[in-house]
Amino acid sequence: MGGSPGCPNSAGRPAALQLVRGRPFADTPPRRFEWAVDMKASMTKALVDASVRLARLHLTEHEPEAALWPLRQSFRALGDTEDAVLAALRNLQ
């Protein structure tokens, strides 16, 4: 799977997604990084996009179980909400 044609840097995605522990800046005091509000949104969107792309690659290779892992990582960054699950499922269609 790592290095699929048409999907640059796919080999690095699983390693990068392993670093996800939760929402960006979640463990910092609320006003500590006010300047990073836009950055947090951008980071979360990039993470979800990468997760969905990786999940799609697994699905095209008939690996549905493997497709779940990147989606679970994106749920960590989104707070594991119902909206996050629904958004990920819509993106897979």
The percentage helix is 55-70%
Tally of individual helices: 4
Q: Please, what is the average pLDDT?
A: 74
Q: How would you characterize the largest beta sheet?
A: none
Shape: elongated
N-to-C span:
20 Å
Protein architecture, described:
The protein is an all-alpha fold and 93 residues long. The chain has a domain at 37-93. It is built from four helices and no strands. The protein has helices at 12-17, 37-60, 64-78, 82-92. It starts with 11 loop residues before the first helix and ends with a helix. Mean pLDDT is 74; it is low at 1-10.
Short description:
The chain is mainly alpha-helical and 93 residues long.
Q: What are the SSEs and their pairings?
A:
Layout: H1 12-17, H2 37-60, H3 64-78, H4 82-92
Helix pairs in contact: 2-3
Key phrases:
93 residues, mainly alpha, single chain
